[in-house]
């Protein structure tokens, strides 16, 4: 698949690159995720929730809309202070922004 392994999350600290996590579709790594914490250093429940929802959704069902509705806006990922969620695709040259409804 052209561009199948072109995704990477690069995290930095004050001294430079802290860590990188890349796609490796041929070996089953079909997404990269990052929250507000370095999940490899601490227990980041938002990251763990994101992974759980992505795995439940599955690669074949993932698109820009389901990323938001079935992953990012789910309990455990979205926060009360979340104002909007964005889904971006370089290959589709698209950016979708969803406003987060206020809790009832």
Structural description of this entry:
- The relative contact order is 0.12.
- A hairpin with a 4-residue loop joins strand 3 and strand 4 (94-99).
- Helix content is 21%, strand content 24%.
- By secondary structure, it is of the alpha+beta class.
- Helix 1 (45-57) crosses helix 2.
Quickly count the helices: 2
Strand content: 15-25%
N-to-C CA distance: 44 Å
pLDDT below 50 for ≥5 consecutive residues: which ranges? none
Q: How would a crystallographer describe the biggest sheet?
A: 2 strands, antiparallel
Q: What sort of overall outline do the alpha carbons produce when their principal axes are compared? A: globular
Strand order of the largest sheet: 1-2
Number of strands: 4
Specify the oligomeric state.
single chain
Helix content: 10-25%
The arrangement of helices and strands along the chain is EEHHEE
What's the average pLDDT? 86
Rg (CA only): 14 Å
Structural class: alpha+beta
Defining key terms:
104 residues; alpha+beta; two-stranded antiparallel ribbon
Structure in a nutshell:
21% of the residues lie in helices and 24% in strands. The chain contains 2 helices and 4 strands, in the order ββααββ.
